[in-house]
Design a protein that fits this description.
heterodimer; A: mainly beta; five-stranded antiparallel beta sheet; globular; B: mainly beta; four-stranded antiparallel beta sheet; 11 strands; about 50% strand
């Protein structure tokens, strides 16, 4: 079983749509959690950290459920510029990445 | 402020050769980590260094080695290159090592290595 699993997509959505990505992790010792965004042939960029209480940054909301070992990312009012691969990441004294979920936002 | 820098940007080598990749962290960051990303996959952890000491090693063969210098820059060395080593090699820096305060990692643009 992979340490971090994500639905690879692609998710094809129209502008303005709300889209949700899910991620599960296998190691309960995971210490911290992140979502990174990666554009084609570019480096990953930190989108947001994920906290147990849930956290929001503008149109983006992240949730963590430690009991279920589940992380989510919600994007509201999708923009064309949100098109990218979204990487779910857990920290086990090293960053462990999922394979990523591809989002394509279309006009 | 400059972010993480890596050199070279692209590199083409043949099987059996050796390669050295370089990384300069964000000013003030003392930890550097290296990752390998093959097409269609997320980055895979190779090494982490903090204050010039190895703090973690991923599941990579001994052909892969790294070091960190007193100025906190780092080199990743790969010997006896194989076709399967073709990938994007990413360097990330953080204030401190993973699991501690200031461990958020910021990535450089990567070095794209092609092995023929």
């Amino acid at each position: 079983r992979k340490e971090v699993e994500q639905d690879p997509g692609p998710f094809n959505v129209p502008e303005g749509a709300t889209v949700a990505f899910n991620c599960t992790y296998s190691n309960s010792a995971s210490q911290s959690f992140f979502w990174y965004r990666q554009d084609c042939r570019k480096e990953p960029k930190l989108l947001m950290s994920v906290y147990s209480s849930g956290n929001e940054d503008g149109r983006f909301t992240a949730q963590l459920n430690r009991a279920s070992q589940y992380i989510s990312l919600l994007i509201r009012d999708s923009k064309l510029s949100d098109s990218a691969t979204y990487l779910c990441v857990v920290n086990l004294n090293k960053l462990v990445f999922g394979a990523g979920t591809i989002l394509r936002v279309k006009s | 402020d400059a972010g993480v820098t890596q050199s070279p940007t692209h590199l083409i080598k043949t099987r059996g050769q050796h390669v050295t990749l370089r990384c300069s962290p964000i000013s003030g960051h003392k930890s550097v980590s290296w990752y390998q990303q093959v097409l269609g996959q997320g980055p895979q952890f190779i090494f982490q260094y903090y204050e010039k000491e190895e703090r973690g090693r991923g599941n990579f063969p001994d052909r892969f080695s790294a070091r960190q210098f007193p100025n906190y820059s780092s080199e990743l060395n790969v010997n006896a290159l194989l076709l399967g080593d073709s990938a994007l090699y990413l360097c990330a820096s953080s204030l401190g090592p993973s699991g501690g305060p200031g461990d958020t990692q910021y990535f450089g643009p990567g070095t794209r290595l092609t092995v023929l």
